[in-house]
């Protein structure tokens, strides 16, 4: 599946109030390693002009789960770049948490990526967010 096919799963709609800074959180599951439980994917963002339809993010994760990922970091970067391309959020954070014992001797593997629009910051809002 190429990048354009992937991104077609992400559907957006108008932000009901573009003057407000608020955080949207969507979590789902995605196959990232063959023959193990699905990884948990968390998307948090402060929208700008559009918001992501949550059901489309679920379909997107299902599609991504059919792809082979060399590393959890590669999957997280793909999600971040795809979401950024489709909704152009003020701030976006993607976390992927692999199931326990995916790698021998490793209890956990987590990737957390973040991006924001230049010159945007809302320290008060982001400081209240709980770490995953």
Summarize the structure in short.
The protein has helices spanning 3-7, 54-64, 72-87, 123-127; strands at 12-14, 24-30, 39-46, 50-52, 91-97, 110-116. With 132 residues, the protein is of the alpha+beta class.
Strand-helix topology:
Layout: H1 3-7, E1 12-14, E2 24-30, E3 39-46, E4 50-52, H2 54-64, H3 72-87, E5 91-97, E6 110-116, H4 123-127
Antiparallel strand pairs: 1-4, 2-3, 3-5, 5-6
Structural summary, described in words:
The chain has 4 helices and 6 strands; from the N terminus they run H-E-E-E-E-H-H-E-E-H. The protein has 132 residues and is α+β, with helices and mostly antiparallel strands. The protein has a single domain, classed as GTP Cyclohydrolase I, domain 2 (2-Layer Sandwich). Strands 2-3-5-6 form a 4-stranded antiparallel sheet, covered by helices on one side.
Q: Roughly what is the average pLDDT, rounded to an integer?
A: 90
Number of separate structural domains: 1
Largest sheet: 4 strands, antiparallel
Helix content: 25-40%
CATH class category label: Alpha Beta
Q: What gross morphology would you assign?
A: globular
Enter the CATH topology name: GTP Cyclohydrolase I, domain 2
Proportion of strand residues: 25-35%
Strand order of the biggest β-sheet: 2-3-5-6
Low-confidence parts: none
Q: What is the CATH superfamily?
A: GTP cyclohydrolase I, C-terminal domain/NADPH-dependent 7-cyano-7-deazaguanine reductase, N-terminal domain
Question: What's the end-to-end separation, in Å?
Answer: 30 Å
With helices defined by DSSP (H or I, 4 residues minimum), what is the helix count? 4
Order of helices and strands: HEEEEHHEEH
How many runs of DSSP E, i.e. beta strands?
6
Q: What CATH architecture would you give? A: 2-Layer Sandwich
Radius of gyration: 15 Å
User: From the helix content, strand content and strand pairing, which structural class follows?
Assistant: alpha+beta
């Amino acid at each position: 599946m190429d990048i354009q096919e992937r991104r077609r799963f992400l559907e957006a709609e108008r932000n009901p109030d573009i003057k407000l800074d608020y955080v949207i959180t969507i979590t789902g599951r995605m196959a990232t390693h063959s023959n193990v439980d699905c990884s948990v994917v968390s998307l948090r963002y402060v929208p700008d002009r559009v918001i992501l339809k949550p059901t489309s993010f679920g379909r997107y994760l299902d599609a991504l789960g059919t792809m082979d990922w060399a590393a959890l970091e590669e999957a997280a970067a793909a999600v971040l770049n795809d979401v950024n391309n489709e909704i152009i959020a003020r701030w976006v954070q993607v976390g992927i948490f692999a199931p326990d014992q995916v790698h021998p001797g490793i209890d956990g593997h987590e990737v957390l990526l973040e991006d924001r629009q230049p010159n945007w910051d809302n320290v008060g809002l982001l400081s209240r967010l709980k770490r995953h």
